[in-house]
Amino acid sequence: MQPVFVRSLSAGAERALRLIQRPPLITSVSASGNVITISSYVTGLDTPMASWNSQNIHFFVVATVALMLAVPLRSRMTRAKLILLAFSVGWVVSLGICVVQLETVAETYAQQYLRITLHTVREKALLEWANQALITVGMLLVPALLFLLTYLSLWLESPQTREERMDFGSRRPPAPSSTARISMASGIGLALAVMIAAFLLTNRPNPDPHTFLAGWAKLAALNPDFAPAHVNVGIGLEEGGRLDEAIEAYRRALRADPERALAHYNLGNALVKKGLYADAARAYEKVLDKEPDNAGAHKNLSIALLYLDRGCEALPHLERSAELDARTFADAHVANQIADLRARCGRK
Q: b vs e for 292-324, b when ≥16 Cβ sit within 10 Å of the residue's Cβ?
């Protein structure tokens, strides 16, 4: 039973996180045995980020149901309704605990291994409060209330008790009102069970890469020295045609990490699109200082230099790009361009 319970929590947590996370940070949740694992675009969509062992999460649900079964109810229907209520309420509370724990382990991983934070101070305080509240409510108050409800059902169905209460002719027996409350509680349990089933059966939407821009922007704002966040913000802005903002994002990445070759490369590409070829050439030269065999940087630098009418300087980079990438040399246009530049520059 436990693996099924944990898998259902995993599926529910993934859906819940996609509903409540704004912007989304955790992109998928999976379960194997007792372990629930999360993935995030922060560490790569195909790379697990962190995991949480949910070994003990089902204990309070099982304990609550066992406690309710210990009450000797005569009506099997009443017992079934109350157990359904216990499972439904227990699952909802367990889901809340699971979501909070997954958010917490993601934050812990980010702090320990990436040296960044995923949440604001307010969000961290809310997570801590929610964790304490759910544990208190789920593991103490909910079992107590469900046990009292079951015990009340036993008291209401006892013929002796009803006869003793009916002896007081001057007082109306409260049994119908209490019975109505129990019926209402059973109805709530059934409704919760139906909602849980519908929630788990809904299709999981695929992560939309465009929604990640807001997440990277949040990470960049929370962690100004986290260069990858600025680079990815720049990529998203560049894809959206917001070149000036993209260029500034790449420059922020380089202020955080001047040695990040990808930031120099992307900055060069954005500058070429803006027509700032001299600045772009300097950006590509920075890439080649760190990665001398970067075929793309050689090719793009040659393009920038050609726009600057510096064809003889562009030639060796275009040739090197062709050597490193056979596809470049196989391009008839590039081959003709190399031949033309060799002739113009007195090269054979």
A: eebbbbbbbbbbbbbbeeebeebbebbbbbbeb
